Amino acid sequence: MIEKNYQPADIETRMSVVWEDSLAFKAGRPDRRDAVPFTIVIPPPNVTGSLHMGHALNNTLQDILCRFERMRGRDVLWQPGTDHAGIATQMVVERQLTERQQPGRREMGREKFLERVWQWKAESGDTIINQLKRLGASCDWSRERFTMDEGLSKAVVKVFVELHREGLIYKDKRLVNWDTKLLTAISDLEVQQVEVKGSLWYLRYPIEGKTFSPEDPASFVVVATTRPETMLGDTGVAVHPEDERYRQLIGNNVILPLVGRKIKIVADEYSDPEKGSGAVKVTPAHDFNDFEVGNRHGLRRISVLDREGCLDLLDNEDYLRDLPEGAAQFAEEFHKVDRFAARKRLVERLESFGFVERIEPHTHMVPHGDRSNSVIEPYLTDQWYVDAKTLAKPAIAAVRSGETTFVPKNWEKTYFDWMENIQPWCISRQLWWGHQIPAWYGPDGKVFVAETEEEAVSNALGYYVEQEVITAEQGREMALDRNKREGFITRDEDVLDTWFSSALWPFSTLGWPDDTPEVQRYYPTNALVTGFDIIFFWVARMMMMGLHFMKEVPFSTVYIHALVRDEKGAKMSKSKGNVIDPLHLIDEYGADALRFTLAAMAAQGRDIKLATSRVEGYRNFATKLWNACRFAEMNHCAVPDGFEPAKAKETLNRWIAHETAHTTREVTEAIEAYRFNDAAGSIYRFVWNVYCDWYVELAKPVLLGPDSPAKDETRAMVAWARDEILKLLHPFMPFITEELWEVTAERDGLLALAPWPLKPSQPSPEQLAMLAAAAGPTDPLISPALVMPIFDHADFTDPRAEAEIGWVIDLITQIRSVRAEMNIPPATLTALVLAGASAETRERAPRWTDVIKRMARLSEISFADRAPDGAVQLLVRGEVAALPLKGVIDVAAERARLDKEIAKADADIKRAESKLANEKFVANAAEEVVEEEREKREAALARKAKLLEALERLKQAS
């Protein structure tokens, strides 16, 4: 029995338990043993995370695919898990220690601190998982993984050791993004570019051999910089090779102001003659571009900052080398001064000597750490790197050949652009929480990389015995007694970048490096659903690692979804106060309404403008479905055993069977093509318009009339179409559909495991062979009933039923539209004349006269050879239907109203076009503001077109 009111909270709690208890989402179910696998790995959310709107969209789309394929008979594995999120998690625990006034990380020591992190993870780490379950994510939760699980850690170590053995992992001194607050290197993804109002300093660098004078431009070169404090590390000045102003100076030296170091003027195309003075200072140890310029010209790298962002000048051999006498005193004065305080003092000193030509206000982008909010410093330091360029080559080829495709396809260009210009990947982090790098150092700094400490010790002792650093006897004693080798060999303290372990996710979660049945069956995966912002950081790296270690691409399709923005198109952010919490929407409207909203708006390549009103609207849609099912139940609609819709006799019932088949094909094809919005739109129109507004309404006279074979058939068809709706809608709105499936009839199983409505045709021998190959060597003969469906599109159709019921619907719809346009009150009945009607229309019209009169508010329906004078003429499926409106409406008053509305639309169009024609407005206004004006213009143009159409009709009634 269906409850009177739809209460999503009650349903969602109950259905979650039902699914969990029945192991509905478990991969490898006995009934799917012979089925072709379908695998998706979840982008593992941070263990510190809480469900945000990006998660909600991403996981809704994954769940649609998984539920769809599960209903199509596939053996679905949606692999869940969480990421240890090195920096984020370490910060959470350190903040807790501070708030509780407990000893900090350094005071606790590594071992005790990591115990504390694991404790926090056990207490709070499941928050995001429980929230995903609230959303309805149908993962195989029994297989949940964590990037620091023992098995996954084993995979990480093996990959590191093998890549190092192959020369693809190495240690190097290069620039990294350095967080001076967290004291670690961070990835580009963890860097936010923040617009800052600063200054551009134009500094005079004296030319060697000339007497410097601020009044003599020939005695110096002017360079512009936003970072005067890094000038102490300058080792060159770059000018464009074709810049006539400096051509004669190339190869000469300038003298670094205050410091006195000679630095060379080099020709490099990096310098832009149109910007600043055309000459740029080159500081290879403090700027990523300068690092490359320095490499091209063999310039020294002088790092003048320490890990905390303070000047590091004393005892700095690189800085002090080749300094003239007296410069060391300057070094002492500025040693350990914070970089921003040093900037101010240095500028004052430069001004006092005449080295500052001018200072201009300058707005520019400055990198900040997304977690620490401190200014990120390009920092020269020893780190571990992966040779990404070598690993990228097969990954590029795999996408070019079509082994992996991107949807939308335009993201492939982004992928290629980045992969073809890929830089070495810095994988070491100066943290404690994470996978500690499996490298040990001997007393002379020699590195020993190994899978275990025992192996590293063995290798190291063997090496040092061979080098006669220790005796064989000492080596044996150290091997047996840990205390005797204490301090002789020490482990690298750094941990690996979180993305390193995430790169192995598609196969490490299946048990690799062990040759498990899961690896054999579920790798490679089928689809990856993710955001565009991690194409480089995650997608590309999974491609590289998957191809290198598994010799196959990790997924065949990468679906890239867009951003969820606020209703005005602005990016959500806490600072703007426009963040929409998906959990609040679930509490208010239910998970199904939120899921359907996100799916319905997920057009490929277009950001989602999310308004709460849209979620509320789809909650109303759920209520509409609920009430339609209650109506069917109250009218004793049920599907009898052996019922075959294709054998229905009533035209209306054959029409709904036809429309159901059509919608099923539309929804199926749209999901297959990742057109989630089209699939949602199709099922929405079918449920609301076709089934509820038309079929049920047109069936009411039969259902409420006396018992008859037609009534029996209609009851069966109402229930059958309802069941098909529940199946089609289930991937989008799983909770309400599962509940209605359970309460509307006595059924054998769950809707989540029910067959998809569109039946597969019998596969050919060639198709069976293809499917067998896809299933892998571990599968026995594939059952045709459980293969990936190969559709027979000659499903049930009835053009004659569609023509008849379609005519009725189109006629009523157009009459209603005219009545609305002409402001005809509902109580006013109008006549209808079918002019020059065909034999088919004359034959079908009497059958539907009562229905048309009731639903279109007509007084009578008649036939005539031609439309009467002064009648509004409608073209309905090629035939004329006329509404005589003389005396029914005040034509003059209606024309005046329409003219006024058209003038208003014209004013709105003019206002929007005026703004959009303003180049300054388009260039400077926020993207969402410009887009809003475009939408206003389009809406006004559409409104005007409708009004002009109504005005044209009005002329017919004159």
Structure write-up:
Helices cover 46% and strands 16% of the residues. With 958 residues, it is an alpha/beta fold. Helix 29 links the parallel strand 26 (830-835) and strand 27 (858-864).
SSE blueprint:
Layout (H helix, E strand, L loop, with lengths): L7 H14 L15 E5 L11 H19 L3 E5 L1 E2 L3 H14 L5 H4 L1 H15 L2 H9 L9 E2 L3 H16 L3 E11 L4 E3 L4 E16 L13 E6 L10 E4 L13 E3 L6 E6 L11 E4 L5 H10 L19 H4 L6 H8 L4 H14 L3 E14 L6 E11 L1 H13 L4 E3 L3 H10 L4 E2 L1 E2 L9 E3 L5 E3 L3 H14 L5 H9 L9 E2 L3 E2 L1 H5 L2 H4 L8 H6 L2 E7 L3 H16 L4 E7 L2 E3 L15 H8 L1 H10 L7 E3 L1 H23 L16 H22 L3 H28 L5 H21 L4 H10 L21 H11 L23 H23 L8 E6 L3 H18 L1 E7 L6 E6 L2 E6 L6 H27 L1 H6 L2 H30 L2
Parallel strand pairs: 1-2, 3-4, 9-11, 15-23, 22-23, 24-25, 26-27
Antiparallel strand pairs: 5-6, 5-14, 7-8, 7-13, 9-12, 10-11, 14-16, 17-21, 18-19, 18-20, 26-29, 28-29
Helix pairs in contact: 1-26, 2-21, 12-13, 12-19, 14-15, 20-21, 21-22, 21-24, 22-24, 23-24, 23-25, 23-28, 24-25, 25-26, 28-29, 30-32
- Contiguous uncertain segments of 5+ residues: 774-794
The overall average pLDDT, rounded, is 91
| Fraction in beta strands | 15-25%
Oligomeric organization of the protein chains: single chain
Rounded Rg = 36 Å
Main sheet?
4 strands, antiparallel
Q: Report the span from N to C terminus.
A: 56 Å
State the strand order across the main sheet: 6-5-14-16
Number of strands: 29
Which structural category fits the helices and strands?
Answer: alpha/beta
Helix content: 40-55%
The number of distinct helices, counting runs of at least 4 residues, comes to 32
Query: What is the 3D shape?
Result: globular
Protein name: Valine--tRNA ligase
Family: Belongs to the class-I aminoacyl-tRNA synthetase family. ValS type 1 subfamily.
Domain Aminoacyl-tRNA synthetase class Ia: 18-610
EC number: 6.1.1.9
